[in-house]
From TrEMBL:
Domain HTH gntR-type: 14-82
Matching PROSITE patterns: HTH_GNTR (PS50949)
Organism domain of life: Bacteria
Lineage: Bacteria, Pseudomonadati, Pseudomonadota, Alphaproteobacteria, Sphingomonadales
Protein name in the entry: FadR/GntR family transcriptional regulator
Keywords: DNA-binding, Transcription, Transcription regulation
InterPro entries given in the database record: GntR_C (IPR011711), TF_FadR/GntR_C (IPR008920), Tscrpt_reg_HTH_GntR (IPR000524), WH-like_DNA-bd_sf (IPR036388), WH_DNA-bd_sf (IPR036390)
SMART domains: FCD, HTH_GNTR
Pfam families listed in its UniProt record: FCD, GntR
């Protein structure tokens, strides 16, 4: 199976195998390849794309590592069910949000964040250090200085949320920082792409910061939950039960 799409050349910063992986991954995410579909052979694919077999092979390895495909001798390379995909991988999130992400997936991200981040804010209020509090304050200052419509502002937003996870002083929660940070960044960028003048979320972030600074665990949890509720509402996506 092939969609005849040539590897893009608009992002020269990407190495060729990363570009191939992005294009193939995006094709899977948008349904051009469906679970169970068989990829064409390595020789055919590399010739169609105009790349070396080595570059194509490395791209396939990237997709295998993200659980999107599997490759077996004599059986070929096949797309795996969505339940096997590592949907929290930061690079896969970038592929998803490059186009029009599924509203159900955005809901899924916010449900996950709703489980993790209010609890993380509560732990941070109990355990944070002065240096970690300073990191949060600096991130907020940069959010206000640059605004979330800019890459610098979105980076500051991610730093704020990562600082809270770090302040939990829980290695398992801290390990989620890159995935949560990527989710924050891409959902914020998507919101600004959809709305010219979205609501300013800085006061919501400051409320979380103030609760953590005051070591008010209940307020930290509640203010983070409210931040997430408002952020999802900004996207005009309601949390509804699947199938409801």
């Amino acid at each position: 199976m092939g969609n005849g799409r040539k590897v893009g050349s608009d992002e020269g910063v990407l190495r060729i195998h990363q570009t191939i992986a992005r294009d193939l991954g995006t094709a899977i995410l948008t349904g051009q390849y469906k679970p169970g579909d068989l990829f064409e052979g390595e020789i055919e694919a590399s010739e169609r794309l105009g790349v070396s077999r080595t570059a194509y092979r490395e791209a396939v390895r990237i997709l295998i590592a993200r659980g999107m495909i599997e490759s077996r001798p004599k059986a070929g390379t096949r797309v795996l069910p969505r339940s096997r995909w590592n949907v929290l991988d930061p690079e896969m999130l970038a592929w998803m949000f490059a186009g029009e992400p599924d509203p159900d997936f955005i809901r899924d991200l916010f449900e996950l964040r709703g489980v993790i981040e209010p609890a993380a804010a509560e732990f941070a209020a109990r355990r944070r250090t002065d240096d970690q509090l300073t990191a949060m304050e600096q991130a907020l200052d940069d959010m206000g200085r640059y605004g979330l419509s800019t890459p610098e502002g979105r980076d500051a937003d991610q730093r704020f949320h990562r600082a809270i996870l770090a302040a939990t002083r829980n290695d398992a929660l801290s390990a989620l920082a890159s995935s949560v940070g990527a989710a924050v960044g891409w959902t914020t960028k998507f919101k600004h792409r959809k709305k010219l003048l979205p609501r300013d979320p800085l006061p919501d972030h400051r409320a979380v910061y103030q609760a953590i600074a005051a070591r008010d665990t209940a307020a930290a949890r509640a203010s983070m939950a409210e931040l997430l509720r408002l952020a999802l509402a900004d996207m005009d996506i309601a949390i509804n039960e699947p199938g409801g």
